Amino acid sequence: MPDWRRCAARDDAEFTTPADALEAGQRIVQVEQVQRYLRVTTSEQVREEFRQARPGRPGPETEYRRIENRTYQPVFEEDPEAIRREALCDGLFPLMSNDASLSLAEALGKYKYQPFVEKRHEQLKSVFGVAPMWLKNVGRVASLLWLYYVVELVGALLEREVRRRMGEVGVARLALYPEGRSSEAPTAALVFDRLRGIVGIAC
Length: 203
Hints:
By secondary structure, the chain is of the alpha+beta class. Helix content is about 40%, strand content about 15%.
């Protein structure tokens, strides 16, 4: 929840009308995004000032008139009920999905799978070395994105097929690293590297 106490540090400005002070206070709570938790009011400050009633050098008989200068400041008051309702959400981990058929456990599983998807997208720059391209035609942009998708799909299918065959034949590891280290879950990058130079294989 945003710290509405930062608003208190910004209410020292003085205004000549209550409307200006109220508008400034409302603007502050909107910037800090705490309008749900604070009520904005104004306070009036009166400062007295004494001036000579007539021009001239002051003396023992000089008369003075009292002048009141009124200024206004925004005042921020906490809404206890709004803060209490917000506190009920502390410690909760919300998940939002447009798939109403998912259970809570399934929704959490989908969320935790997200890093794997991002790791797959990362291979476009690392494994497949996709370079930036300048395309003006929208159709070409869509086509290039579709090719990127195919590249990722081929890599994922290759990894799944290799690991599936390893399970079928009872092979726990494959020595795919250059120094002969074995891999329990071969990646497409390791497989392509081992196939590099073989006739008919473009890596």
